[in-house]
């Protein structure tokens, strides 16, 4: 069995490394429009060979899509039109628009929508690491619409990646990822822009940056090629969570402006309840 990975960056490359380690398949075929990524993926051993998308469809049993979600939207109908019994796995970070686009496709059963809740702030083939997915969660979206054998094969790959499985519908998935993933990136981008703006007049500001700043702003190093399409595809949920976030920032702002430090203490104390979720 051959597996094709379309998009050989952090997610695709890390999957390729791990699947090669476990010898789960005969060959990993890499597909990427960027020639530099193709060369680097071969040099790093992320894939066994490079092919065009059409060649990969013809020669692979499984086609894993790890490109930005806008590209998944474009590629999915094209791929489904050309497969026979192959399995197509989408690992994008948003689902509603992608799944709506193929809802009536006759090959919908060969499609498995999955989202590995794993990643770093780095991108490209050089960012790939073999243990990226270990003990993380693979979210299956509308798995009941996939053929049983297609899902079983996708789930076997999840096992090889040493991940746990959970299940959601598309609306639930996109709403929850907006709150636990997308807002984190937006906040980090905003903080980076805030500090960079201040740096124009206070050039030595980064001399004071410690581990707290680094851990909060590290996501601002994430790829705009990946994240702009995510915010676009999940626009409504992102706007909702962003409005709530701005509201909470305004509360903190007002307490400090009004010198209401008892109220500020209470807000911070309330925020400490996040320990119930994050140990």
Explain the overall architecture:
The chain starts with a strand and ends in an 8-residue tail after the last helix. It has helices spanning 10-22, 35-43, 53-59, 69-82, 96-101, 148-160, 170-199, 211-217, 224-233, 235-257, 261-271, and strands at 2-6, 27-31, 49-50, 62-65, 87-90, 111-117, 137-141, 164-168. An eight-stranded mixed sheet has the order 3-2-1-4-5-6-7-8, with helices on both faces. The protein is built from eleven helices and eight strands. The longest helix has 30 residues, at 170-199. Helix 7 (170-199) packs across helix 10. Helix 2 (35-43) links the parallel strand 2 and strand 3 (49-50). It is globular, with a radius of gyration of 21 Å. It is an alpha/beta fold.
Top keywords for this entry?
alpha/beta, 8-stranded mixed beta sheet, 279 residues, 11 helices
In short:
By secondary structure, the chain is of the alpha/beta class.
Mean pLDDT across the residues is 93
> Shape, please?
globular
Described by strand count, sense and barrel closure, the largest sheet is: 8 strands, mixed
Indicate the low-confidence ranges by residue numbers: none
The total of helices stands at 11
| Structural class label | alpha/beta
Helix % is 40-55%
Total number of beta strands: 8
Strand content: 5-15%
Radius of gyration: 21 Å
Order of SSEs: EHEHEHEHEHEEHEHHHHH
Instruction: Give the terminus-to-terminus CA distance.
Output: 41 Å
Oligomer: single chain
Strand order of the largest sheet: 3-2-1-4-5-6-7-8
